[in-house]
Amino acid sequence: KVTGVGVGVGVNASHPLTLEELNVVEQVRVKVNDAESTVAVEFTPTIPHCSMATLIGLSIKVKLIRSLPERFKVDVHITPGTHASEHAVNKQLADKERVAAALENSHLLEVVNQCLSARS
Amino acid sequence: MPAGDPSRAGLCHRPPSFWVCSGCISCSSVPAHKRPFGFPSWLARSCLENTDPRTRGRGIQLLSQVLLQCYSLLQEKEVLHLVLFYENRLQDHHLVIPSVLQGLRALSMCEVLAPGLAVSVLKAIFQEVHVQSLLQLDRHTVYSIITNFMGTREEELKSLGADFTFGFIQVMDGEKDPRNLLVAFQIVRDLIVKNYALGPFVEELFEVTSCYFPIDFTPPPNDPHGIQREDLILSLRAVLASTPQFAEFLLPLLIEKMDSDLQSAKLDSLQTLAACCAIYRQKELQEFLPSLWSSLRREVFQTASEKVEAECLAALHALSACLSRSVLSSDTEDLLDSFLSSVLQDCRHHLCEPDMKLVWPSAKLLQAAAGASLRTCHRITRSVVPLLLEQYTKHPQSSQRRTILEMLLGFLELQQKWGHVEEDESALLSLRAPVCSVVFSAMTDPSVQLQLVGIRVLTVLGSLQGFLSPPDLELVVDHLLRLILHEEDSQSSEAAMEAAGSLAPIYPQIFSGRMVPRLGEELQSEREEEGSRAPRSLQQRCLQALAAVSTHTSIVRETIPVLLQHLRRVQKGSEAGNAQDVVSVCQSLHRVALQCQQDAESCWYYHQTVVPCLLAMAVQAAMQESTHPLQGKALLEEEALAAMVPVISAASTHLSPELAAQSVSHVVPLFLDGEVSFLPQNSFPCSFQPFEGGERLEAQRRLVALLMAFVCSLPRNVVIPQQERLLRELLALSCSCNCPFTATTAAKCFAGLVNKHPAGQQLDEILQLAVNRMEPGLAEGPHRTQALTLLLWVTKALVLRYHPLSSRLTDKLLGLLGDAELGPVAADGFSLLMADSPDVLHKGCHADVRIMFRQRFFTDNVPKLVQGFHGAGPDVKANYLKGLSHVLNHLPKPVLVTELPTLLPYKARVIRALAKPLDDKKRLVRKEAVAARGEWFLLGSPGR
């Protein structure tokens, strides 16, 4: 039912491709269970040392939280084996309080918002 | 009362005389070197002589603070005593020193300081104070004292010789605070720039400053001092690059830091090197050139960072410029020559491998060096251009050829910088034939990309005066013509047109003699074989090319007749789609008009030739229409007339007032009285009466569009003859005409004139007249829409110039939002009020447009729109919202952002409310909800 929600997140203005165009996010790596109200997104950083991995994950998460009904539990993590700091990034993204704290930081929020509005 | 109380000492009331001792007995008991002249003895005894250093310190602090307030009132003798006292106190307990320094700082600002005292103070400080063990503020005080003395006692300080420099080196050695460093660097720079003696201490001075290089400083968060890393970098660079004397120490340091892993260190080194090159000579560089070159080359070849590459190229450019500048004596080696030899040796062979990755870095290095001076340019071009020509022939693939040609382009563009080729000792001239043959081969290659580079090279070659010979030029024109007319790819043909446009002013004769006639023939020949019509695109290209090449006044005189001739032929033709042909010619005419605007002579020629001709053709067509109404006339169709408007407008906006007056004295009588005598071919079957009534004259009335284009584009100071009569006629036409095009045009023309009309009784009368006609028209009758259009345009004209009547008219418009029939049109009218209009009422046609009119309109009318919305019935509510959204849409973003907080209280509520439809069962609803909710999250948030 909700698979129509595209993850239209741009990474930066000088590189104006969406994550879908960069194959960072692919439809096969998105699992939606409407009955159990869960959404799981695996994303694949472009290179194993991609310094933007956390920001990308955070942007995806924020976009989903804003776009999905509240009943959904959103899980965003790195495709296994595709990033050097996979575990650390996943832990950060799974930690509700850290995500909330990150969005309190106006600088970080600015960057995330830029990602989310790049193409709209 | 405590001993230090200033009121007791009478500080408030008796400044300078306070220092003169009133003769109390106890004064004599304090030795003179321990107390200042006239210092009240009770205070002296209680504080300055106190055995407790803290109390002593407080006494001196009080004295210093007083001095800081009133140093300008002191007299020379007083200053002398105070200086002696303070110098002596420098030997006191360390707790006292900060206050002593404050006092000395106050004294260092005294204008009456006797000669010799500045040196004496500095010597005392250098000798007695270990500056770096003081606190930041106290160290800063020392720097301030030195800065003050350097500003006012330069000669005196210089008498100290290198001792002063040495003293200062000891003062700043070990300084760590960025605030102090900024001052200290400034002092060092002044030492060097103002030629203080450095003596044997050059290396020490270098060490004490270069130890900070490269600057690594991140300001603490929320730093109140606001010192940025960049401030320190620039002020240290100003020191390091201030003298060639540092070169032998600095250059090895820079070479070492270029090798650093830190990109910031690399960049800083490169920028510092470039700065040094501005003052260095061959002598300083000689020893280091090989290592400098190898570091620069390594960075450009290896780096992935554009920034590093750019800075390397800038440094190489500066280095080459520096070597070029040096004057050679006959017995020294020419370093420039050997330096360029090594650059060529290391880069040249890479140019032969257009597929390899070092080809562009090498080309960029060579170009950076070649761009430094005429000499470097010659030296490198002489070596590289023949090589590239040879490589072009060796590599048959068009992608490789393109790379080679692009490199060649870069080198030729550098030639452009140095002007005439004749002075070029024929280095390039001798290559004319092979260069031309390469360029022509590229232009005939099937690859569009190669063609495009070829065209760019050709443009550069053409701008090198004297390079292309007359036979070459004929070939150039032929190649361009071929691309323009027959190349399938529109990119190439457009590039060829632009190239023709930029070469035409350099070689006007060959373009007017060879290109224009050919284009004219093509246009015509196509017409003659009517049966097998060539594609319309060919005709289109001829028209575009004629416009593009009209960049010189002599060419304009050739192309305009061709274009007008073509327009006449189109007008006579009877095929469908004629109006589109008229539009095409008009687009070309418009471009020529814009190109003529800056040249008064071309501008007047254009106006005189084109405007009467267009008017004559239109009038002729309109009369034929009146007599034979069934013959459709392309020229009279709305889109054709609309295309003629910008042509006439662009031909009129830049006229001088005298010429405009001359022209307006013909055009206005044409429309008011049918005065056709100034038109070419003016024998018409009947009279021209566009403002007369009658069905048969409908076609004539449409020509008001041309009147509008002319009369609304004139400079504001041009007097329009019979303006009142003209305005009345336009007013009548706009309210009564059944044809929407004509009515709207008349309304726009009226508005355009009213906007520029000087304020006063006349204007008020004509506006009253307009209101009187509009009001009944709006109320009822067959012409309600026309009346609304007039209201909109007149309101716009007045809103733009802040006319007092504008608010009344706007209110009328707001009222109409509630009208069931006119409401939606009135709502869209707000867009018309706020947007820039393309043909009238904009700055380009000299309209009176106040810069803040949109803000003002917003402030005045948004509350009314909101109020109207709340009070409106359900069927017309949407009109108010639409009006509001038009106003908001055109508001400058900064204004909108400041107004947004008034909307933000609803943000949280809206976001909450939008959560529900996210889960709606209809997909479309979910989609819109996601989009809207996302937007609301971003509203007023950072990063938007």
UniProtKB/TrEMBL annotation, chain A:
Q: Which InterPro entries match?
A: FSCA_dom_sf, MIP18, MIP18-like
Q: Name one GO biological process term.
A: protein maturation
Instruction: Give the MIP18 family-like domain ranges.
Output: 15-77
Q: Which UniProt keywords apply?
A: Chromosome partition
Q: Is the keyword Phosphoprotein assigned to this protein?
A: no
Q: Name the Pfam families on file.
A: FeS_assembly_P
Q: Which domain of life is it from?
A: Eukaryota
UniProt family annotation: Belongs to the MIP18 family.
Give the matching PANTHER family: CYTOSOLIC IRON-SULFUR ASSEMBLY COMPONENT 2B (PTHR12377:SF0), CYTOSOLIC IRON-SULFUR ASSEMBLY COMPONENT 2B-RELATED (PTHR12377)
Assembly and interaction partners: Component of the CIA complex. Component of the MMXD complex, which includes CIAO1, ERCC2, CIAO2B, MMS19 and SLC25A5. Interacts with CIAO1, ERCC2 and MMS19; the interactions are direct. Interacts with KIF4A; the interaction facilitates the transfer of Fe-S clusters to KIF4A to ensure proper localization of KIF4A to the mitotic machinery. Interacts with CCDC117; the interaction is direct.
Q: Please give the name of this protein.
A: Cytosolic iron-sulfur assembly component 2B
Q: Please name the source species.
A: Apteryx owenii (Little spotted kiwi)
From TrEMBL, chain B:
Sequence similarity: Belongs to the MET18/MMS19 family.
What species is this protein from?
Apteryx owenii (Little spotted kiwi)
Sorted alphabetically, the Gene Ontology cellular component annotations on this record are: cytosolic [4Fe-4S] assembly targeting complex; MMXD complex; nucleus
Transmembrane stretches, by residue range?
Answer: none
Segments forming domain MMS19 N-terminal: 46-302
Per UniProt, residues of the MMS19 C-terminal domain are 542-905
Q: List UniProt keywords, sorted A-Z.
A: Cytoplasm, Cytoskeleton, DNA damage, DNA repair, Nucleus, Repeat
- The answer to whether UniProt assigns keyword Nucleus to this entry is yes
Q: Where, if anywhere, are coiled coils annotated?
A: none
InterPro entries per the UniProt record, alphabetical: ARM-like, ARM-type_fold, MMS19, MMS19_C, MMS19_N
The molecule here is called MMS19 nucleotide excision repair protein
Keyword Electron transport present in the record's keywords: the answer is no
What the entry lists under Pfam families is as follows:
MMS19_C (PF12460), MMS19_N (PF14500)
GO biological process entries: DNA repair; iron-sulfur cluster assembly; protein maturation
